[in-house]
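Hi everyone, sorry if this is the wrong subforum. Our group has a chain we'd like a structural model of before ordering constructs, and none of us has done structure prediction before. Sequence below.
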Amino acid sequence: MTENEKTIARALVACTFPPGSGTKRFAKDMAACATQEQPYEMTPAQRRYLLTAAVRFRRQTPAGVVALAEAELRSDAEMQVRAGQGAPC
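Answer:
Right subforum, don't worry. Here is the predicted structure as tokens:
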């Protein structure tokens, strides 16, 4: 995980999630990975889910963290376009 991903994961775990939400468990798991000393390599799908969850729960997440997640999502989208994979849906 990068430092940005760790920051987002730590902020997201403090949110209140709907009952039965898979996002709650994912946030707890990612926050646990962020505190480990061993490096954790996120898959592209995990990274995208983490970033979109931070934007989805933006009212419960600090504004700086939301801005960071939005910037990371834009960066990922630009990289996909440059790589010829088209715009993400």
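For your construct planning: Residues 4 and 27 are 15 Å apart (CA to CA). The chain has a mean pLDDT of 90.
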